[in-house]
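Hi R.,

As promised on Friday, here is the backbone we talked about, encoded as structure tokens. Could you run it through your design pipeline when you get a chance and send me back a sequence?
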């Protein structure tokens, strides 16, 4: 364990044993966003459907290697169709000079910006396309967690709100699975405790009492009002990454995936990331006493991630 394997995610996953990994947390390359310069890379497909098919195939291999109690946490964002005036040029990652999304004077791949059934300027719906595809293949779709970026970048668009969130889907291999809610519970504010206590009054004299919200129902057990913590919600407010690595500019922050690792595995458990990138998953796993297996197609990223995890970068 605690290894980084350089290669195609699908092919490497096929070499891993069945039921051998406790959890997987990852963020695959987003569709039509960046060219990482590697043959067989994800995100450069000619259609969104082809992109979803490739990811589904990879995550079904993850399904095989997960233990029956295992979970999968996927961070993924959406993409937009273009204006229909031509192909999309993608910024080439790996040179440390990607100040703009669309590179005009560098070697680029071309990806269409409109497709059958998707109009120019449409939001494609990539996250839910993937979630529904995996659900249809047997995964249990358990939660759609919203990553609210508290320091999101401004956008120049004037005909829609600025994007400030991404999705983290929690999926499980089985109906019952490992999930340590206590490991990620949050302090309960005093004002919330007082509000819960006010809900203990007797509402039986009012018509429609049986239809009251749960907080106002009569209870025999009031222990929840004396607790200091609450269950973690499904909107996570986390700022974007402050760790700098010129060669990789699509890293999720450590604080974003710490709850995933803590809730999805015990100490000593094995955390898998088939799109390892800059190695954030390995950093978090090591910090919290877990083992990790990272896979990435780019040799440079594999080297940099290893150094980062060892504290060299």
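Update: got your reply. Pasting your designed sequence below so it's all in one thread:
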């Amino acid at each position: 364990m605690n290894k980084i394997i350089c290669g195609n995610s699908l092919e490497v996953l096929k070499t891993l044993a069945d039921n051998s990994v406790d959890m997987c947390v990852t963020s695959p390359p987003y569709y039509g966003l960046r060219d990482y310069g590697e043959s067989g890379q994800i995100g450069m497909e000619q259609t969104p459907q082809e992109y979803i098919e490739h990811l589904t195939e990879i995550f079904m291999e993850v399904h095989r290697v997960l233990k029956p109690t295992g979970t999968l946490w996927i961070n993924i964002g959406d993409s937009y169709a273009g204006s229909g005036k031509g192909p999309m040029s993608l910024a080439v990652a790996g040179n440390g000079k990607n100040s703009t999304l669309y590179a005009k004077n560098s070697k680029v791949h071309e990806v269409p910006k409109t497709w059958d059934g998707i109009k120019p300027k449409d939001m494609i719906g990539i996250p839910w396309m993937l979630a529904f595809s995996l659900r249809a293949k047997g995964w249990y779709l358990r939660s759609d967690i919203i990553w609210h970026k508290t320091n999101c970048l401004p956008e120049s668009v004037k005909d829609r709100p600025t994007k400030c969130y991404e999705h983290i889907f929690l999926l499980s291999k089985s109906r019952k699975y490992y999930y340590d809610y206590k490991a990620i519970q949050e302090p309960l504010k005093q004002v919330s405790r007082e509000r819960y206590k006010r809900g203990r009054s007797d509402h039986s004299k009012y018509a429609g009492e049986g239809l009251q919200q749960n907080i106002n129902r009569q209870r025999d057990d009031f222990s929840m009002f004396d607790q200091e913590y609450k269950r973690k919600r499904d909107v996570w407010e986390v700022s974007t990454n402050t760790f700098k690595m010129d060669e990789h500019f699509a890293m999720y922050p450590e604080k974003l995936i710490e709850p995933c690792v803590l809730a999805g595995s015990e100490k000593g458990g094995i955390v898998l990331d088939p799109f390892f990138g800059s190695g954030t998953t390995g950093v978090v796993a090591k910090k919290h006493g877990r083992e990790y297996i990272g896979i990435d197609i780019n040799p440079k990223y594999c080297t940099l991630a290893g150094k980062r995890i060892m504290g060299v970068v």
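One thing I noticed while checking it: The longest helix spans residues 48-65.

Thanks again,
M.
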